[in-house]
Amino acid sequence: MMELARKYFRIWVRTASMAMQAQLTYRLGSFGFLAGKMIRLLFFFAFVVAIFKNVKEVAGYNLVETALFFLTFNVVDMSAQILFRGVYGARRIVSEGDFDFYLIQPCDPLFRMVFSTVDFLDIVTLVPVLVMVGMVFARLPPLGWTRYAAYAALVANGVALVYSIHVLVTGVAVRTQELENAIWIYRDVMFMGKFPVDVYAPAVRWALTFGVPIAVMTSFPSKALLGVLSPAWAAYAVGLNAALLALSARFWRGSVAAYTSSSS
Amino acid sequence: MRKYLVAYSISLQETLQRRSTLIMDRLGGFAVVLSLYSFWSALLGDKPSFLGYTRDEMISYVLVINVLRALVFTGRGWQLVGEISNGKISSYLVRPISYHAYALSLDLAQKSVHVVSAFFEVALLAAFIRGGLYLPGHLSTWLLFALSAILASLIFFFMEFIVSSLAFWTSESGGPLFCFELFLQFAAGAFFPLDVLPEFARRLLSATPFPYLVFFPARIFLEKVSTGEAARVLAIEAAWLAVFLAGALYIWRAGVSSYAAEGG
Amino acid sequence: MPALDVKDLTKDYRSPVKEPGLWGGVKSLFDRRYKDTRAVDAVSFKIEEGELVGFLGANGAGKTTTLKMLSGLLTPTAGAATALGHVPWRREAAFQKKISLVMGQRTQLWWEIPALETFRLNQAIYGIPEPDFRRNLDELVELLDLGEHLAVPVKKLSLGQRMRAEMVAALLHQPQLLLLDEPTIGLDVIMQKKVREFVKAYNKRHNATIMLTSHNMTDVVELCKRVIVIERGVLLYDGPLERLVERYADHKIVRVRFHSPVAAADLRPLGTVVSAGELLAVLEVPRDKVPASAAALLRSYPVADLDVEEVDIDDIVRRLFGGS
């Protein structure tokens, strides 16, 4: 078991280093993407600050709290982007035949699909976010360590949820080889996670909690920290995660079976 | 002239045929509209107005953004970058066809589909929201708005053309294009009305073409500007259009000659 | 126990059928039609350890599909096979560590960085201990003459260098079973020879079982004592190459270009005239008569250029079994 974990860790480090080397050959492009991501982050943050110059609270949350929601969204979203970036190339991997190599080699193909191309630029953009989170923490009233633990746990939970969604998308890419936009729709819908889920009308809130569980990923951790999340909801978050992990694993196995019996 | 109509019709068919792409694009945009609407709704709550916008006006702003995004920002920048990179445009350069007019035809076709869809989405949302919308009473407003939107659309077309033309000189123009698009959307007021920003920022932006893409046309729609001012906006848009049109043609010529020099 | 034991292996697959035109496209949204194709039809054969077998057939005959099944990439519709004692499509790690599939013009090398990096990745994937890695790498690099090319980004390598680097990547873990799908396609004559020599050397050195598909008759002739011919999914011939060649490729193709016009009739004594223009002629000449015919042509006619070629394998197969 340990041997296996070590092997996969070694492979992960190797592919991350290779991806980094490959990235460095594209300096202009990398800079452009990095600049774009920073702009997006800064503009939104400026927007939040500017709003609160004119208003005391939105949906019951003040500036610090709204900033917390927004930043937590970024922590979850960016962590997922860093770890699971491989999925964005999934369709190309399948259509160009790299997936065949993944299947033949003694390394889990899902692992290679999802984890193989760490974008170290995203790590660069995560640092200021974490710093700002620290600043927000400093401005909150003293809360017990249990709250912070719950926050961290739910952030990890959120990232795991994103993982399941990425696995589902990868399965779709392998199965159909036609649908290339599933991952982009995830990114677009994730936009809704930038705001605290309470801003949305009840029907939408319901959809974001039980349909596409963006609220669980991005709003729950902040709510837990602020003490407005009941244990029942936290249990739901964890249970949902377990269920989705199992479901996505099953779907993936089915996708591989479909691929190996239908392509020629 | 006929050939451009044919190009238009083919591009129209193509956009309709790539159903899944289209649906994904629209759904993504819809998520953005929904989030923005919900946020502003929550922010305004029971307040009479915010920064001079009543609830009806703010909601209308959000819906107008949806239409304007479809009309102004739907573009083929990425395709152009791709076609330059893989040499496909060579085939157009040897034909008796103006590449700009051709690209414009394709672009218009794509926009037609997206704008129609945007109208449907807006109508759908309008049916469900509580409270009213702000709809201009004067016919002249609608005309001025349409005119400013069309000019905005053309300005963006040529702006994007210039940035995409970077592909003539580098294979990494994707990064700058990404950065450009993101910055643009914020500066144009496509996420929030620029009134949110502090005075100096607004003054700075007014000297750039960006607010003329979304913010000023939207203000015309909301009748927050006098007819005289609206005319001024249109004149400035026309001036920017001339600038970018000339710029695009110039860069294109430079790019094509350097392209040919390398033997394609 | 044979290295490869294949019994009644069958593979069907269905592909969607779309009518052309806009209306056809619209219809296909609602009514998906499929076409069922039998790519491999009850193919059976046994291959012993250390054999080097050629797998021949026209495009679409089922060769690649069979190789993919034997590597575990595809699950068959019916039939059974064991490779090195494992069922391939179970894709057990123990099995995967002993095999390799090389597909011509497809690469597992990462594009922007040196090939050596991908080799290191494979080391991690296959769990090759460092001393073994070094030894295998050195041996392969020497056999394939790749010395200075390891530190260069793969995108800067020529096709021949890339293909050789590809072979290194595929063989670092010293597989016992090597499946090669068109390994020399797109390579120039010198490179083809290098690859062939390498395959032969690897086969000898490690007693590896090798199955090779190729459209290149020279590959087959140089490497394979035994060939399996497959046409439209059906196994047509399984036996020594000589008998196949003797019987069906008893001649070679001679192409001539002349300085001044030569009448086709004059050439008939030298061989069967397949085609003749004013200054060009293509002849089929029996193998043993080729040197004499070539000499006669050069002696008696104003020859500008002369080529002697093997018959294309596709032609042999087509002629063999009358079909296509």
Question: Mind explaining what this structure looks like?
Answer:
The complex is a heterotrimer of chains A (264), B (264) and C (324). Chain A has 264 residues and is mainly alpha-helical. The relative contact order of chain A is 0.12. Chain A has twelve helices and no strands. Chain A has one domain (2-258). In chain A, α8 (145-176) runs parallel beside α12. The radius of gyration of chain A is 20 Å and the shape is globular. Chain B has one domain. Helix content of chain B is 73%, strand content 2%. Chain B is built from eleven helices and two strands; from the N terminus they run ααββααααααααα. In chain B, strands 1-2 form a two-stranded antiparallel sheet. In chain B, β1 and β2 form a beta hairpin. In chain B, α2 (19-44) runs antiparallel to α3. Chain B starts with a helix and ends with a helix. The mean pLDDT of chain B is 83. In chain C, α5 packs antiparallel against α6. In chain C, α7 links the parallel β6 (177-181) and β7 (209-213). Chain C has a six-stranded mixed sheet with strand order 5-6-7-3-8-9, sandwiched between helices. In chain C, strands 11-12-10-13 form a four-stranded antiparallel sheet, with helices on one face. With 324 residues, chain C is an alpha/beta fold. The B-C interface holds B 13, 17, 19 and C 22, 25, 29.
